[in-house]
């Protein structure tokens, strides 16, 4: 029962995947431009396309920890949590072609 209304147990989403998408950016003081890291996907779906770096959140970590782990894995730099911030959550069930995935978007500043 939810809020006084019976809910069909089959209608409850139990375990969606949680994807962390990270906008990793830096500021070039020489050119006064913002740089954003893109990676070329090497798996389906969208193999060969450019994308923002992403990873799945692991069972033993928070979303913030996953965002910082992603930075370390992609560019080899360990940053403190003061460099990253969650921007948005995307939940549209049609967002991914296979299993239901919730996506948390982060913005991470990469210092020069």
TrEMBL record:
Residues 36-97 form the Nudix hydrolase domain. InterPro entries: NUDIX_hydrolase-like_dom_sf, NUDIX_hydrolase_dom. Pfam families: NUDIX. Gene3D superfamilies: Nucleoside Triphosphate Pyrophosphohydrolase (3.90.79.10). This is Nudix hydrolase domain-containing protein.
């Amino acid at each position: 029962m939810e809020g006084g209304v019976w809910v069909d147990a089959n209608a409850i989403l139990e375990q969606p995947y949680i994807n962390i998408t990270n906008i990793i950016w830096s500021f070039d003081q020489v050119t006064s431009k913002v740089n954003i890291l893109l990676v070329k996907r090497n798996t389906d779906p969208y193999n060969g396309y450019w994308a923002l770096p992403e990873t799945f959140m692991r069972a033993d970590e928070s979303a913030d920890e996953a965002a910082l782990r992603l930075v370390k894995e992609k560019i080899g730099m360990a940053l403190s949590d003061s460099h990253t911030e969650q921007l948005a959550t995307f939940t549209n069930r049609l967002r991914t072609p296979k299993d239901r995935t919730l996506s948390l978007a982060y913005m991470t500043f990469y210092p020069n």
